[in-house]
Design goal:
The protein is an alpha/beta fold. It is built from 13 helices and twelve strands. The structure holds glyoxylic acid (GLV) and magnesium ion (MG). InterPro entries: Aldolase/citrate-lyase_domain, Citrate_lyase_beta/mcl1/mcl2, Pyrv/PenolPyrv_kinase-like_dom, Pyrv_kinase-like_dom_sf.
């Protein structure tokens, strides 16, 4: 039976860096800000406590001539801000084949390594990328005298990264989780979408013709472009005991589609998502928390199942050892969120 201990990632055997304990933590909302944008940066201190993660983004969406300013801005914000117990500080560094990634890691770990919880690495292709970051972090942490390991989160946004998703998850005991990067992944796969996340009205199924009449009216339903990818990512993360996250939803005004996409990811096993705008924060918090009804039902099943074995009938439905495990997922999530 799962317990709260399961929220702490077990150590991988034969890992490249000897880390004795990795206090990984799931989070519903990873809120992105651009540290080179003074207006956005000024809002950061007031957001502490309102989101699980504040992430200073250095990669895409920051212009090439603002990379150094973004890095320096993040150092300044981190030094000036007390993030308290409930909000973590993460960063998304530039891609490992860009001119900035090495300086990002060196500067951030040296200057604010004591405040930085997780480094998000974009465009990860395979375990070798994680090994590279892991070794660099180990050196920089040792030099800075840091005792708490900085964790690593990879974005799945290349076809090669998707193919190597299992080895990426298990590449280091620093691995905290994965996010889907639907925009870069769509481009790399040569999908024909132009949005950041979400669906496409042309990706649909149509009912068969009635009585063979191919000209007659037939219902259609839009399909989820990301179902396969998210399900695959969730399996790989579950296998390695790390956390899967949805990622960005770029149409800030379409709060309905945003909520649908987040909810699909939640139901498939994701623990959280990114927010690119404050309106997405409340959506993410609501969606990635189990409903009061689901929690009440799950508690009834736990209660009815007694020692956790056998089968009982509740409201005409059969519950057994396996449905108990599903209910425990909901109960434990509710308990953790209440802490
Ligand atoms: C995120 O980085 C994406 O490419 O969707
Ligand atoms: Mg991307």
């Amino acid at each position: 039976m799962r317990s709260a201990k399961d929220f702490f990632r077990p150590l991988a055997v034969g890992a490249p860096t000897p880390i004795t304990e990795v206090p990984a933590r799931p989070s519903r909302v990873i809120h992105f800000f651009d540290p080179s944008n003074a207006k956005m940066a000024a809002k950061v201190p007031a957001m502490v406590g309102t989101v699980d993660v504040l992430l200073g983004n250095l990669e895409d969406a920051v212009k090439a001539d603002r990379k150094e300013a973004a890095r320096a801005g993040l150092v300044e914000i981190a030094k000036a801000t007390d993030f308290g117990e409930h909000t973590q500080l993460w960063t998304r560094i530039n891609a490992l084949d860009s001119p900035w990634a090495l300086d990002d890691l060196t500067t951030l770990v040296t200057e604010i390594g004591d405040k930085l919880d997780v480094v998000m690495v974009p465009k990860v292709q395979g375990a070798e990328d994680i090994h590279y970051v892991d070794r660099l972090l180990a050196q920089l942490e040792a030099k800075a005298g840091l005792t708490r390991p900085i964790l690593v989160h990879a974005i799945l946004e290349t076809a090669r990264g998707m193919v190597n998703v299992e080895e990426i998850c298990g590449a280091s005991p620093r691995m905290q989780g994965l996010s889907l990067g639907p925009a870069d992944l769509a481009a790399d796969r040569r999908m024909k979408t132009t949005r950041v996340g979400g669906g496409h009205p042309g990706y649909l199924v149509r009912t068969d013709p009635v009585d063979g009449d191919v000209t007659g009216a037939r219902a259609t339903a839009q399909q989820d472009l990301w179902h396969y990818t998210i399900a695959r990512m969730v399996d790989a993360c579950a296998m390695h005991g790390i956390y899967p996250y949805y990622g960005p939803f770029g149409d800030i005004q379409d709060v309905v589609a945003c909520e649908d996409q987040f909810r699909n990811a939640f139901l498939l096993g994701c623990v959280g998502t990114w927010s690119l705008h404050p309106v997405q924060i409340e959506i993410a918090k609501r969606v990635f928390s189990p409903s009061a009804e689901d929690v009440a039902h799950a508690r009834r099943v736990v209660e009815a199942m007694g020692d956790g074995t056998g089968a009982v009938m509740l409201d005409g439905k059969m519950e057994d050892d396996a449905s108990l495990k599903q209910c425990l997922v909901i109960v434990e999530l509710a308990e953790r969120l209440a802490q």
